[in-house]
Specification:
This protein is mainly alpha-helical. 79% of the residues lie in helices and 0% in strands.
């Protein structure tokens, strides 16, 4: 798809590195119950993972810009690996929760680092496709990850699955650290980026992202609840897979055909599409009907995340980009917690169908925020100085330059 080879390699490596993080909360719940005998402990430990990530994501992202990619990635990766090894053998409830929280706090900023580097090594004209391919990689992870967890559980149990994923993820992390440049980003690139308008853009995106992730948090509760309500709890995993496949299809379409219009226009259109298609989730009464609604709803998910990444990259000075992605993760964790808690409470009191109103309400709110602040999403055209500053980076697609050699 006309991406530099180094960019394609980076996307593959950071997707592999993200495997233990993506599956961590699921494994923590399964392992917590097995090691401590308590779902309450497992739930608190899972929450600790999310809170830990929310607290440190922007802080570690800032360190990437100050200390460089490799020292931060390898140090946090080593600490994260140790905490996962401890989780595998911890049986004391307090120790298990503490280690799970430490795992969240020490989460390697591999996505923030990798996404920030994509903005440097990919020509501006191909940046939309690069983030679309990255979104596709993440969807493949969420489609194949649960299946890999299931197979690992059959072979080795939760502890063995956690250790296996930790080993695979560590290999991907080391590979990512080898591909990204050692040194921090050159501050000269910040001179060609807007500052005041960029900050306004980021504020809009962070606010919108809380609403978007509140909807996603609600979905993770409501989809299994729907399967249980209609008498097929064993079909919950299938419904989640269909949802992810829909998102994967949307991401592939964006990667192949490119983004239509401006990043800001696409951002508004996609969050609006999510709000509209979420209304169909109120209608199904059977598993097949819900599968269709989820597939349609999923189509705009990966494209929205891809455009979010691109818009953030185009509005943020290069030295601050990894930190900005960290703040996006923090906003996401807040939204995820709010959506999960709210949808669960409404489902308990009023039933599953009204619970899906949480998803629609969150996305309507996100759309309203983005629409009322749409002027902040209109980015200025790249200046000649900016084009000149990124020309050596664009050359990465034509052969190895200094950063490719590490």
């Amino acid at each position: 798809m006309n991406l530099p080879r180094r960019a394609s390699l980076l996307i593959v490596l950071m997707t592999v590195a993200q495997l233990p993080v993506a599956m961590r909360q699921l494994l923590v719940v399964l392992l917590g119950h097995e090691n401590t005998g308590s779902f309450a402990t497992a739930g608190v430990a899972s929450a600790g993972c999310g809170i830990g990530l929310a607290v440190t994501a922007p802080l570690v992202g800032r360190l990437l810009g100050r200390l460089g990619n490799r020292p931060v990635l390898l140090t946090t990766g080593a600490v994260h690996l140790v905490t996962l090894l401890g989780l595998a053998v911890a049986t004391n409830p307090v120790a298990f929760v503490a280690l799970a929280t430490a795992a969240g706090l020490s989460t390697p900023p591999v996505l923030g680092s990798g996404r920030a580097q994509l903005a440097r090594i990919v020509p501006s004209s191909a940046l939309s496709r690069a983030y679309a391919v990255n979104a596709v990689g993440q969807e493949v992870l969420y489609v194949g990850g649960p299946l890999a967890v299931t197979l690992s559980l059959l072979v080795s149990g939760p502890a063995g699955a956690l250790l296996t994923f930790a080993a695979i993820g560590t290999a991907g992390l080391v590979g990512t650290a080898a591909v990204v440049p050692y040194r921090a980003v050159d501050d000269r690139s910040a001179e060609s980026r807007p500052t005041t308008s960029g900050r306004a853009t980021r504020r809009t995106m962070l606010s919108t992202h809380v609403g978007y992730m509140a909807a996603i948090g609600g979905m993770w509760v409501l989809v299994p609840a729907f399967a249980t309500t209609v008498g097929h709890p064993d079909q919950a995993g299938l419904l989640v897979t269909v949802w992810s496949v829909g998102s994967l299809a949307g991401g592939l379409l964006l990667a192949r055909r490119g983004r239509p219009g401006s990043p800001g226009g696409a951002y508004l259109a996609l969050v609006g599409t999510l709000a509209v298609t979420s209304l169909a989730l109120l209608l199904p009464r059977t598993v097949p009907q819900m599968a269709v609604a989820l597939a349609v709803f999923g189509l705009a998910l990966a494209p929205f995340l891809a455009v979010t990444d691109e818009l953030l990259a185009r509005s943020t000075p290069a030295p601050q980009l990894a930190e900005a992605y960290g703040w996006l993760q923090t906003a996401g964790q807040i939204g995820l917690a709010v959506g999960s808690a709210t949808s669960g409470a409404i489902t308990d009191h009023f039933g599953n169908t009204p619970g899906f109103l949480v998803v629609s309400a969150a996305l309507v709110l996100a759309s309203a925020i983005a629409l009322t602040r749409r002027r902040t999403l209109r980015l200025p055209e790249a200046t000649p100085e900016a084009t000149a500053a990124t020309e050596p980076v664009a050359a990465a697609g034509r052969g190895f330059v200094r950063d490719d050699a590490g």
